[in-house]
Structure formats: structure tokens, C-alpha cells
Design goal:
- The chain has helices spanning 40-49, 59-67, 105-118, 129-144, 150-162, 176-179, 184-197, 210-216, 270-282, 287-295, 324-342, 345-363, 366-378, 385-393, 397-404; strands at 4-9, 12-18, 24-34, 73-81, 84-94, 200-206, 242-248, 253-260, 301-307, 312-319, 408-417.
- With 420 residues, it is of the alpha+beta class.
- The protein has two domains: 4-221, Cytochrome Bc1 Complex, Chain A, domain 1, CATH 3.30.830.10; 242-417, Metalloenzyme, LuxS/M16 peptidase-like (Cytochrome Bc1 Complex, Chain A, domain 1), CATH 3.30.830.
- Helix 12 (345-363) runs antiparallel to helix 14.
């Protein structure tokens, strides 16, 4: 599945994936912003804009519009991508191939995406105070509730500690305190600045000819200038690994480890690192699952994953408090054991099959493809899934072990459970 890439204007790009196998077409419009110390306005803006446009000023009117598009759906999003945050709208609609000619569903839905962002409901020439107050309260509650998912929260805190002082270490949703106090004037100014100059990443996956799809997004090209994409820097080396222990009233401790890998998605060896991470902790046949969880019963769960933009590998696990040191040591032992060459051909091939299946599954889901290609574009990565799969298929054990040699421990974060 080959992408077709268009530059519609300075700072405005469209990725098209021509595909006839899906019954649903997916469109998106994303505005790329740098992560800052307080990202509340960025996180709040898409929620407010989705409350109504100038010609459909409330949710009921928007709902009727979507019903007229054969039940099309729109969703706001906020996505941390390396040192950037992408805010926007993703939408899906019945593909043109399955409706009578002349319906122009893609063009009409692309027009709605444009109006959501460029022609919102503006009572008194400002974004609605009522909408801001309501969505600000929802956002504040969402930020406060991050602690409720202790697995995700411990990973977030590990990343914040590991990348302290870097944009990546900031919360992409901002602060609950700010969310409750954003003014119409401030958010309206932020909106105007965003649509005026933020780089825009557009996406279409469906049966329409790419040139025809590009014409549907033409209104987004009506701008004179744009900022550059935020520069995404790999996580820098530290003098020594750090350990952070925090307490929370939970029954199960959460142990998260952050590693520098020395490789990002720009490096030719990155697919080999992906395969190593899969063998280390990416699935139920991995070393972490089979040894740390199953054989030694040190963790309730244990898995590893990568951030291709920052060159980071993370391990997430749930443990009993008393097992903190022994679980940490065993995770590090399994990593060192694999790095030293104990990875077998059987382990390698099983991990390869799992990784290839995951990539093929992504090809079956247009929404997953949208996330992949937007992340690629924001990070300045040009290879597609077919290229990535071909690289993974051709990797040798030697390639994988070589890619793993740069992995070093950076941060240990332990969310210690205390009496509830």
C-alpha cells in the first residue's frame, strides 16, 4: 500500500492512501504544535471547536449534518508525537464506491473538517464562553483522572522524570487548574494563531483518486505562510541512571523502566531494534513474559515498547512492593542476557511472526494507518508499512543483536502501593 504525498501549500501536506478494499473512508486534519510547559489551550481547543460551527452552531445541528452524510463520524484528538503535540479531527464515512454517484461524501466531509477548524461558532466574535467552560471542566476532570489508571499513570510519570526539561516530558493535556480558567479571549487568540501558521497534516484513505482527494482538501491551502515542524530531538544521554519512588494508595506497585537505545526511526537499524523489543517484552512469548512473569512470578504483567521519535525503550510492569528490587534486577538481567547473545533463532522467528502480524493488522484498519502515517510525517520519516515489513522480514540474528547494544538504563520509576 503506497502513499501519495502532496504539498498543498507552505506547511500544508496531504497523505493519500489509495485503497479499494475498505468500505469506509478515513479523513483527518491535524495541526502540529510544539509541546510547551502548559499545553492546556492546545488540548482544549479541538473539544471546543467540535461543539459547533458557524453554520451548525451546536451538537444537534452537527449531528443532523453527519446524518445527512450517511452517518459519518467525527472525533477530536490530542496526540503527543515526540516533542510535538498534534491536535485535530479524524472522521470516517462510507466510501464513495458504495453510494450513488454525485453524493460527494468525501468532499462534503472534508469541507466540514475545514469549517470545524476555520469557521467555528463565534458568538460575540469569540469562541463560546459556555462551550469553553463546559469542555474546560471535562478536561480538568480528565487530567485529574489520569491517576486512576495506575499503569498508564506510572508510565507517564516515568516519561516525565526521564525527560524532565525536554518538551516530551510535558503533559500534552496541560493542567487541570488552567483548564478551569481559560478565557474566551485567550482561547480565541490561540485558535487564530494555530490556524494561521501551524503546520497541517491532512490524510485520506479510500477509493478516490488521490488527485481528486487533494481537490477536496483545497480550502486548507488558503494560507500565506507556516511555521516549521517542531524539531524532535532524541533523548540525550545521562551521566547515570536515576531512581524515582513515589507512593499512592493502591494495592499493586507499578515498576516502569526507561532506557536510551541510541536509535530512532531515522536509523537504518531501527527495524532491528523493533524486533529486539518484541523478543524482549513485546508479546506472550517474550523473555519478560516467559521468565519474569510466568517462571519466576515476579510480575503480574511485564512488557516493553519503543518510541521511534525519542529513541526510548520502556518496560512496564505490575509488582508486589516487596519484589521491587528483585523484579528490577531480573528485568535488567534478561535484557543483558539477550544483549550478550542468548537470543535464539527460534525466539527471533517467533518475535518476527508476531511483529509482522501486528503490522499486517494495521493495514486492515484505516484509522490505524492514519495514526501511523501522521506520526511518520510529523517525525520526518518517509518509509511506508510495506518498506518496514520488508526490512523486518530480512533481518538476521546478527542485525538484531547489533541494534540492541546501545540500550542502556536511564530511569527507574516505582509507584509504590501503600495502605488504602
Amino acid at each position: 500500500m503506497k502513499q501519495v504525498r502532496f504539498q498543498l501549500a507552505e506547511g500544508v501536506h496531504l497523505t493519500c492512501l489509495p485503497a479499494e478494499q475498505y468500505k469506509t473512508a478515513v479523513l483527518s486534519a491535524g495541526f502540529v504544535l510544539p509541546l510547551t510547559e502548559d499545553n492546556t489551550h492546545a488540548a482544549l481547543l479541538p473539544q471546543v471547536l467540535h461543539r459547533g460551527t458557524a453554520d451548525h452552531p451546536d451538537l444537534n445541528a452537527l449531528g443532523q449534518m453527519l446524518d445527512n452524510l450517511y452517518g459519518a463520524r467525527i472525533y477530536p484528538y490530542v496526540r503527543k508525537t515526540g516533542d510535538a503535540v498534534v491536535i485535530g479531527t479524524i472522521a470516517d464515512v462510507i466510501d464513495e464506491a458504495y453510494v450513488p454517484q454525485g453524493e460527494a461524501l468525501t468532499a462534503r466531509l472534508a469541507s466540514l473538517l475545514y469549517r470545524i477548524w476555520h469557521a467555528p461558532y463565534l458568538p460575540n466574535n469569540l469562541l463560546s464562553a459556555d462551550y469553553i467552560a463546559a469542555e474546560g471542566a471535562f478536561l480538568a476532570d480528565k487530567i485529574a483522572a489520569q491517576k486512576n489508571d495506575t499503569q498508564a499513570y506510572s508510565m507517564r510519570r516515568m516519561q516525565e522524570c526521564m525527560c524532565k526539561g525536554e518538551p516530551y516530558g510535558q503533559n500534552e493535556f496541560g493542567s487541570a487548574e488552567t483548564a478551569r480558567t481559560v478565557s474566551p479571549a485567550a482561547l480565541s487568540q490561540f485558535w487564530q494563531d494555530t490556524i494561521a501558521a501551524a503546520p497541517i497534516e491532512l490524510f485520506y484513505c479510500g477509493s478516490m483518486d488521490p488527485n481528486d482527494a487533494a481537490a477536496c482538501f483545497a480550502p486548507f491551502a488558503a494560507r500565506q505562510s507556516a511555521h516549521s515542524l517542531p524539531r524532535i530531538l532524541p533523548h540525550p544521554a545521562q551521566d547515570a541512571a536515576r531512581t524515582v519512588v513515589e507512593e499512592m494508595a493502591v494495592t499493586q506497585g507499578k515498576l516502569s523502566l526507561g532506557f536510551r537505545t541510541g536509535l530512532t526511526g531515522h536509523d537504518a537499524a531501527y527495524p532491528a531494534l523493533m524486533l529486539f523489543s518484541m523478543a524482549f517484552g513485546g508479546y506472550t512469548g517474550s523473555r519478560l513474559f516467559r521468565h519474569v512473569r510466568e517462571k519466576l512470578s515476579l510480575c503480574y504483567y511485564a512488557s516493553s515498547g519503543l518510541d521511534k521519535h525519542k529513541g526510548i525503550m520502556v518496560v512496564s510492569s505490575g509488582i508486589e512492593n516487596r519484589n521491587f528490587e528483585v523484579a528490577k534486577d531480573e528485568i535488567l538481567h534478561q535484557l543483558a542476557d539477550l544483549q550478550s547473545g542468548s537470543l535464539t533463532e527460534e525466539e527471533l522467528n517467533a518475535a518476527r511472526r508476531t511483529l509482522m502480524n501486528q503490522l499486517r493488522t494495521m493495514q486492515d484498519n484505516p484509522a490505524s494507518l492514519e495514526r501511523f502515517f501522521q506520526s511518520q510525517a510529523v517525525g520526518g520519516l518517509t518509509y511506508d508499512l510495506d518498506t518496514l515489513m520488508a526490512r523486518v522480514a530480512g533481518l538476521t540474528r546478527k542485525d538484531v543483536l547489533a541494534a540492541a547494544q546501545g540500550i542502556t538504563l536511564d530511569t527507574v520509576y516505582f509507584l509504590k502501593g501503600v495502605a488504602v
